[in-house]
Structures are given as C-alpha cells and as structure tokens.
Amino acid sequence: MVNYLGLKNVLAMKLMSQCKKKKKKKNMHHGKLLNYFNLFLFIYLSFVFNFENTKTSTTTNKEQIPSTLLISFLSFDIFSYWFATRPKALKAPCDLRMQSVELPGGEFARRGAVLNGGPLLSHFYEDAKTLYEWFHRGLRESNNGPCLGSRKPKQPYEWLSYSEVIERAENLGSAFLHKGHSKDGDPYIGIFSRNRPEWTISELACYTYSLISVPLYDTLGTEAISYILDKTCISTVVCDVPEKVKLLLDCVSGRQHSVKTLILIENFDTDLVSRAQQCGIDIISLRDAENIGKAHRQHPVATCELSVMMFVFSQGNPKGAMLTHSNIVSNVSAFIYVTKDTHISYLPLAHMFERVVQGVILMHGARIGYFQGDIRILMDDLSTLKPTVFPVVPRLLNRMFDKVNSPLKRRILEFAFRRKENEMKSGIMRRDSVWDKIIFKKVQVIIDLRIVVVFSVVMGHVRMMITGAAPISAPVLTFLRAALGCHFYEGYGQTECTAGSTATIPGDWTAGHVGAPLPCNDIKLVDVAEMNYYAAKGEGEVCVRGPNVFKGYLKDPEKTKEALDEDGWVHTGDIGRWLPNGTLKIVDRKKHIFKLAQGEYIAPEKIENIYIRSEAVAQAFVHGDSLQACLVAIIVPDPDFLPGWAKKRGIEGSYEELCKNKEVKKAILEDIVKLGKESGLKSFEQVKDIALHTEMFSIQNGLLTPTLKAKRADLRDCFRKLIDELYSNIKI
C-alpha cells in the first residue's frame, strides 16, 4: 500500500536521479532521450494518479496502486534504462558476412578477410621479430612497469619490473653459457616447473642467448621424461621443487644419461645433493646460478632461429615439434592487441596456448600474475589480482554451464538470456544491462567456487576471455557470453601451428564455428573420400600453411613427412566445413577413424564429444572395429551430477551403487542416444550398448596423455573384457 501522492514523489525523485546520473556520462544523446522518456512518464503518471485519486476518493481502496499501471511503469522504466545505457556495437575489422576469401590457384585455400588482400602476417612490429626483441619492446611500452607478479598465501602480489626480469634472465643465461651451453653445441635447456615468474625468466634466458627451451609437464611419468631427455640430450634442467628433482633422478638412475646440472628454485637438503651426485649430477640453487652468471656476464646472442622444442603427445612416444622465433612471433602478432592489461597465468606454460597469450601480454608491456600453484585457491588469486584477460579451457566452461542448467534455473534464465542474445547478434557485448543486474549477477555468484573464472567477471575486471584447446558446444558458448558479458573469443589450432590457426573476431558473437583464418596463415580443406568429404563442397581435412607452421619433428623425418607435405601444408587430422560467412566449423576427426563390418567409417572422438554433453557423463570411450557391425562405449558417470540426475528419475544410492544399477545404465544410454540424434549422428554412429565405469580416465592410470587426450590403444586393452561382454550381449 502506497499513497498516490507519495508514489508520485518517489517516482519523480527516482527519475530525476536517473537523469542526473546520465548527465554525468559523456553520452549526451542517450541522456537527452532518457530525460524525454522520464518527463513523458512523469506527466503521464501524474495525470493518471490525479484522475484515480478523484475517482476513488470516497472508496476505501484509494491507497491501492493499480497493478496494470505499475506493470506499465516498470516495463517503460526498464525499456528507457535499456535504451539509454545500450552501448554501440563493437566495430568488426571486416565484413562479418564474409570473414575469409578464396585464394586463386584452384586449391580452395582461404585467407582471412582482415588482411584485405594483403600478404600473410609474419610480424606486426619492426622492432619485435624475435622473442628477445618482443620482451624489450614490452620494456619500452611499459616504461619499465610491472612485469611478473607472484604472491604468498594471504599476501598481495609482489612485482618484478621489466628491467629486473631482463637482468635476471641475462644472469641466468650467462650461467648457462658458463656451464658450456651454446647455440651450436648443447643448446637445450629443460624447464620442469609449475607456472611462476622463474619459469618465464628461464625461458627468456634461453631466448637471450639463442638456446632452446624444452618444457616438461608436471604430470609426465618417468617413461616419457626419460624419452625426452634422451631425444634432446638435455644436460641442464631448471626445476621448481625437490619432488621434481627426485622424479628426474628416478629417470636417470642406473643408466647412461646426458643430465649434468639441475637448477632448483626452492630450498633443498643435503640428502638430495648426495643422491644426485651418485648419478653424476650437480644441484645448485637458482640464486647461485644467477650469481655465477652475474660474475661471468655475456652479451646477448639472440640470433638463433629455433626457440622452443614442444613435445606432442599422442599414441606411442612423444614427438618433438620444432618451433622457431618466427613461428611464435607471427602467431602472437595475429592475435588481439592489448595494453595495460593484467593476465592470470594458471594454464600450463608447457602448452603453447598459454605461451602465446603471455607473448601478447609481454609484447605490449602489460603484466602477468601467477597463481599460487593450487587450483583450489585460484579464486583467492583472482580476487587479489583482478585480471582483465582470462584464457579458459572448455572443461571449465562446461562445468559452469552445468551449474546453471537445472530445469528451474533454466526457466528463470531463458527470458533474460534471449534478450541479451539479441544484443549479441547486433554485435553488442555488455554486463551492465538490466538483465545483468537482476538475473545474471545471481548466475555469476551461484556457480561453484571451483569454476574460478566467475568471481573476477562479477567484479567487473575481466574484459576478455579466450577459449581453445578442445571443442565447446554452441549453446554453452552462447549462454556464457550472454551471462558473463565480456568479449569472449574461441580459437582453434594445434602445437604444429604454434598454437592458433583460426579465431573468432571482435564483433562476431555467433557460436558454432571457430572463426576465420588468422592473419598469419592460410587454410585449405582437402578431400577425405573414405569419409565422403570433398573440398569442392567446402568440406575436408583442415590443412594450414603460413609463417606459424612448425619446421618438423626432432630427429623424426618419417613423422614429419606424414604431418607436413612438400608444399608446406600441415595436415591436422581434423575435418572442417566452410560456412557461408567464411568461418570454419570443425565437424569431424580423421585420425583414429576405423571401419565397421558393413564398411561405414567412424570417427569416435566426434561421437564422444557429443556424449559427454550429457549431464550424467564425465568421460566416454567409444569403440568399434571392422569385425563388428555396431559401436559400444565405456562411460564414466560424473560423480558430482549423477546422484542428483538419478534422483530426478526416482533412483537413489551412492555413486558406486548407481553405477551398478541397470536402470541408471539404461537411462544414461537413452540420454546419450538422444543427444546423438539431436546432433545429427547417423544410426550407425550411435552406440548400441554401454558399460559404466567408476574410475576416471587419468594420466596416473595410464589412460590419458599428459595433454589429457585419450590413449585409445591403452583404453582398448584396459576394457577389452568389458567390450567383449557388451558385444556378446548384443549378439544375444
């Protein structure tokens, strides 16, 4: 109950306050429009209220507000607020209706339209053609500003300036030379550490003196590490903690090896030194190494072309992809340019995705803050650092989407989502709309704390997010773009192309594609006749050529010839389709394909990526062979979602009990088959039976590679008995 006169005063104060706020902003056009809207609204409401007061002065209900009038007021106020605060669409760098153009020559190759017919981009700045030069450019751009930051628990970030980083890198690099390393002999330096400033300092030390960095994964086993050490003949490895040193000693103990020196970042004891000496290895601290270099300072020798040895993990032994300064500089130059940004480094630096993002940051004099090394407290690092650039992998995005995709939340969000989706289609990306304030702000705080990106977005600091490394479904990406309201880009690539080969462009917020070719490479599709894909129809295997394409695999000419043809095109093994707007859509996978008994070709990874969209499914392994006429699958249900998912279907129990329940198995099979139909899978691409497995596929149990890709041969061997049982039941 509100008195009409009191309501009029409240409305007048509200509208005048809103107008004053708008006047403070520079957008005078919108401010004037809002004034006109509010003036009209105030006059209209005053007339109606006065009329109603006169009409109902003798009734007992004169204090009531007409509900239809209140609804009209709210609707009109929302519209006026939306219209007045609606930002302009982001200007796209090219025509969004044609983002790539076909090149002459009859190969069906395409080039990004952002180049406007010009040559491929090898570098963007004349003073930044090597990784050494790009860092020094960052020094100049930042005016020796903060560069690398780290923090101790519950403490603020402490920063090293650009000049401090360069000085430490030159000291460490000089120590490498003093130990006998050179670009012509013993050029490889191993880096075996989590993300931290010392990782980047070690990398820059290599660039400064034309040495080659060889990143080692935290999750590598002794077999893979031993292979890499032998393949590269590494004599020096920089490690962060004693546990990594112990793992390296396990790899070389009792056999011939090349390792001579281990440089340890954190403290260590004499027992570790003694054990290393028994293997013929010296251990020194990073501080001592820098002091050695300071006493034997060398002038920079940044001329060597080869810069990084990235080991690619698939079936069999890892392959060493040789990447040059030119490869990385061209790829970094092709991405979005940033200034005065802050980046949170938590994705593994042993992957090129994170390295390229850091390159963009450092080339422009921005700063990088490293997480403390524990993903469980990354939220605390985010709230302290307040990053503006946040790369994220699809796995996190899928979990974010699952958290808000319950039926109740879905109904609440649907209307607001459609309103924001309409703005995105017009090229507008924002997080200050009325829908953000009323609805999506709630979404951004209800997501599980393990999904670490959200807090920083809520705080309004993240302006740009980048996702890649794996496929992400269009509904998930579209929803999160609307809900989070920052510029959200998707890219596609692989290590052999340095990192990225396509990316969505500013202003294009549509989903369902991976963007146009980057300015550093062309893309063509080639026929895959056995899968019925033909380049003339705009479909085929994705091939990439440009200055970002690697030089081959270390000491492996056969594998190099398989991946890199004589014309310089790297064959990715992915199947793509050109869309009418010139963007690329990844639709299938050529590698790991097999033929069923009836002659149909199957790409299991495509099917698995569809099945894991089920709320109940965490992992899937689809199997078939030429002796069988159908597919089966091993499914690992999601322990976080399975109990709630099953309860909705009237089934309760522990995770282990549910995985043994035949009704749960039947329900999951029906759900994934339904998803398959919705995604356009043919009947022969659908599994006919499944088995539920309770243990996640992991690096530790040997079923995933260090890059978290399925070891298909090992999975097949591990589940051979289950697979045979599934086929036996189908035959019955």
Automatic annotation (TrEMBL):
The keyword Transmembrane applies. The keyword ATP-binding applies. GO terms for molecular function: arachidonate-CoA ligase activity; ATP binding. SUPFAM superfamilies: Acetyl-CoA synthetase-like. Its EC number is 6.2.1.15, 6.2.1.3. Residues 156-554 form the AMP-dependent synthetase/ligase domain. It is an enzyme of class 6 (ligase). The chain crosses the membrane at residues 33-52, 64-84, 447-466. Keywords: ATP-binding, Fatty acid metabolism, Ligase, Lipid metabolism, Membrane, Nucleotide-binding, Transmembrane, Transmembrane helix. GO terms for cellular component: endoplasmic reticulum; membrane. It catalyses: hexadecanoate + ATP + CoA = hexadecanoyl-CoA + AMP + diphosphate; (E)-hexadec-2-enoate + ATP + CoA = (2E)-hexadecenoyl-CoA + AMP + diphosphate; 15-hydroxy-(5Z,8Z,11Z,13E)-eicosatetraenoate + ATP + CoA = 15-hydroxy-(5Z,8Z,11Z,13E)-eicosatetraenoyl-CoA + AMP + diphosphate; (5Z,8Z,11Z,14Z)-eicosatetraenoate + ATP + CoA = (5Z,8Z,11Z,14Z)-eicosatetraenoyl-CoA + AMP + diphosphate. PANTHER family: LONG-CHAIN-FATTY-ACID--COA LIGASE (PTHR43272), LONG-CHAIN-FATTY-ACID--COA LIGASE 1 (PTHR43272:SF28). Belongs to the ATP-dependent AMP-binding enzyme family. This is Arachidonate--CoA ligase. It comes from Cyprinus carpio.
